[in-house]
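Form P-L/3: holo structure prediction, ligand 2-phosphoglycolic acid.
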Amino acid sequence: MTQRTPLVAANWKMNGSKALVAEMTTLLTRADLQGIDVLLCPPATLLPLFTQAEKLALGGQNLSQFQAGAYTGELSASLLQQAGASYVLVGHSERRTLFAEDDELLLAKVQQAVSTGLTPVFCVGENLQQRQQEKTTEVLAKQLAAVYASHPELLAKSVIAYEPVWAIGTGEAATPEQAQQAHAAIRQQLARYDATAASKVRILYGGSVNAGNAGALFSEADIDGGLVGGASLKPAEFLEICLRAKD
Ligand code: PGA
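OUTPUT (holo model):
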């Protein structure tokens, strides 16, 4: 039993096309998605093409820590919002690893999102070595503390995504038990900063979610939906995943 509305989010990464926007919009707008929130995070240039998608929320995959100015190539929270976004991913492991985004920068990005009215989907997760060394809880705690220990007021405005790095794009999802254990640890950690917000915050699981494993993952007590990469590029499968969150 959860009083939290499930959220299923698509992270297209640097993939997709105008044709995929049209295909996805057609399929999802015809489906009965009552009772769940569906969020699409395509590359930002595609956001304005979702013109017939009132039932769907849109999000960016990254944002600048700055409000505006001489930052060639960057996108501000406000620009994303004007393109149709109401959410934005922050701290995806690919940003942390490939673009060296650190705790301090990610705090600034979450603050920038919230102050502009975008809901940050703050991503945390351990890598394989950290899991093998049984440091998962410690790593998650540090990543969460970097934002919410000093700024607990940001929690009520956030969504959290637990994405174990070893499960992203590998076809090897965490088991429902592994994921539930991490989600419970995340909620417990967040309760130290704001107990009410921690009980209400949606915690999504991400990492090789597909139509086959989504149902079991989403039925766990602290798993409030998913952040879906590869499978979100296949409209029929993504719809299946969304519908699993209704069960
Ligand atoms: P995946 O990606 O579903 O392809 O594993 C998830 C993500 O990176 O958000």
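COMMENT: The chain has a mean pLDDT of 97.
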